[in-house]
Design goal:
It comes from Enterobacter asburiae. This is Peptidase S74 domain-containing protein. This protein is of the alpha+beta class. Helices cover 48% and strands 18% of the residues. It has a two-stranded antiparallel sheet with strand order 1-4. Strands 2-3 form a two-stranded antiparallel sheet. It is rod-shaped, with a radius of gyration of 24 Å.
Length: 65
């Protein structure tokens, strides 16, 4: 499964130091960006709700005929 790059953010690693006080850079981490995921979910729900409302309206019109 592939995750779209829009949903991923790069989280920089916190600096670490060895026993002699030298900085040792750790690997950065990838994390899911929940803001983008929630926005896409809201947009998808909005679309589906509008489609459902249009279908319900059409059904009511057909019932009245």
């Amino acid at each position: 499964m592939k995750i779209d790059s829009e949903y991923v953010t790069l989280v920089p690693a916190a600096p670490k130091f060895d026993g002699e006080g030298n900085r040792v850079d750790a690997d950065d981490t990838l994390a899911l960006d929940s803001n983008v995921i929630m926005l896409d979910t809201v947009l998808a729900l909005n679309y589906v709700i509008k489609q459902l409302e249009a279908t319900q309206k059409e059904l009511q019109e057909l019932k009245q005929k």
